[in-house]
TrEMBL record:
Superkingdom assignment: Bacteria
Name under which the protein is recorded: HAD family hydrolase
Membrane-crossing segments per the record: none
UniProt xrefs under NCBIfam families: Cof-subfamily, HAD-SF-IIB
GO MF entry, a single one: magnesium ion binding
Lineage, highest ranks first: Bacteria, Bacillati, Bacillota, Bacilli, Bacillales
């Protein structure tokens, strides 16, 4: 019996114009009415997940920044993880490149050293402004505790950077291609899969009692956690092969979950 449904946001639940389509909103409500808890899991900040939840007038468990933060639907914090300032400084220096945009994320704000026209365009895809933080390196450990470093740029260059950083800092970081032109660098052992396990432990559930749906490489760890995993039809083939099934929408995945539960005899 599935008792928890976890959905990724961008490319999955969230439309590219930053809204949730009606059929998906209704699917989440139907799950909740069938006593299935819902969790939103994203590389986005918790404040953005809360904004989306408010927009669709609902309340969910939340996993933000690929698992750096885990919150219950009643706003109880289960997990929070940030970089040590020395490691954040080393990573930031390694990622600076005139061809890349580097965002440093705290629990509730994205920062850049200098805002440009490119940053202003990127900002349109976010729910809250990107803030300027002059002398970024000097701020680490003082007024800024980074939980994620995001690099935007050419996909092939990011794949190469991911390999280099993973080799150099393999005991200290995990790195995910969260979208075609986006690389997220996280503290070690931060993933959506580990975050869901933290939530499962809190709820007293087993991995086979959760279903999840996503579309990108940062969703693979949660696909590996449970046999009830769904990849979006738009996902890269390399991502799809890690999921149990492929769906065209969150609402389709929800219907499959409800049908499976309804086929299990009640005791």
């Amino acid at each position: 019996m599935i008792k928890l449904f976890v959905s990724d946001l961008d490319g999955t639940l969230l439309h590219q114009e930053k809204y949730v389509e009606t059929h998906n909103i209704e699917a989440l409500v139907k799950l909740q009415e069938s006593n299935i808890d819902v969790c939103l899991a994203s590389g986005r900040m918790d404040s953005e997940i809360l904004k989306i939840s408010s927009d669709i007038q609902n309340n969910f468990h939340r996993i933000s920044q690929n698992g750096a933060f885990v919150w219950t639907r009643d706003n109880h914090s289960l997990h929070a993880k940030v970089f040590e300032s020395e490691l954040a400084s080393s990573l930031y220096k390694q990622t600076l490149n005139p061809n890349h945009v580097v965002l440093v994320c705290s629990n509730d704000t994205n920062y850049v050293e200098t805002k440009t026209d490119v940053i202003n365009e990127i900002e349109k895809h976010m729910f809250f402004p990107i803030e300027e933080q002059e002398n970024m390196l000097d701020s680490f450990g003082l007024n800024l505790s980074p939980s994620k470093i995001t690099i935007l740029g050419d996909h092939s260059e990011l794949v190469a950077l991911q390999a280099d950083l993973t080799h150099q800092f393999k005991e200290q970081i995990d790195a995910y291609i969260s979208a075609k032109n986006c690389l997220d660098i996280m503290p070690k052992h931060i993933s959506k899969g580990n975050a869901i396990q933290i939530l499962l432990d809190h709820l007293g559930l087993q991995p086979e009692e959760v279903a999840c749906v996503g579309d990108s490489f940062n969703d693979i760890p949660m696909f590996h956690l449970t046999p009830n995993s769904f990849a979006m039809a738009t996902a890269p083939e390399e991502v799809k092969k890690h999921a149990s099934a492929v769906v065209s929408s969150v609402s389709e995945a929800a219907e499959i979950v409800l049908a499976r539960n309804n086929s299990i005899p009640t005791k």
